[in-house]
Amino acid sequence: MLPDTDELAEVLLDLAVPHEDINDLVRMRRRVTDDPELRQILEASVGQLVGAVGRLGGEVDLPELDWASGPLQRCFPAYVFVAALPYTRAYHRERGVPADISRRTLADLGRNMAAHRRRYGRAGVEAPRWLIRHFCGELYQLGRLQFERRRLGQRTGAALAAAGLGVQPGALCLTLHIPDFLGPLTPAACDRSLTLARDFFARHYPQERFGFATCHSWLLDPQLKEYLDADSNILRFQERFRIARQDTEPADTESVRFVFGDPDLPVAQLPRRTSVERAIGDHLRAGGHWYIGHGWFPLPEE
Q: pTM of the entire structure?
């Protein structure tokens, strides 16, 4: 189920896995393939993942690896995704997804491992459940943004229905995500991504109609207006959305995670190098909190 040693290194490079992690992943491959228990867990995990490829909103519950803490436990999800890779690529080809979009989408595995190394200084997969969306064909990287095929949730759908938009919970939508390590979130880059998304989904998912884009992020917290210049990229991004609702439970660790790379950093020690860093840290040090905003905007017709 896993590529041989020589091929594995090349596959990991294609998935943008950090160079300093590749030797360890290649070395540990034999432990996965030679140990009956690990091989069984790998096969079960890949079966779960492959069974959901192409299914919108399919639940995937990857088995937990009950193994001694260490590099193999931290990196085991990478082997699951590598083993599932041929099935994901076959699904992309079936849909006519261009090879470059497929490659950039699945390279989020490497981005995820880079985030883990930034936070802990060692190899590992930071958020395996997040990557299920990529390998099941639900999420695509199109320019600066990622777009996930979703259905409106109960609360957001109810808010849009109350606004008289003629939609209900469960209606199709595209959910926007902002990947790390990809430069500034400029208005021009967002415009280009939205144009790419309109053409991409019309061509490769013609049976699905996406009338709305949604986003669920601390980037939509209106308190950011108190700290950032009106022409900042974040506030320009906010302006695209109509806010359906805002969480009442604080999500301070979300902003710290995405701005500083580690949600557990002490608030008192957060750097103040950029306007966003100063905004996040100063607000928390003053006793404030950050909240997830849930926004939407209509997607233009072709």
A: 0.94
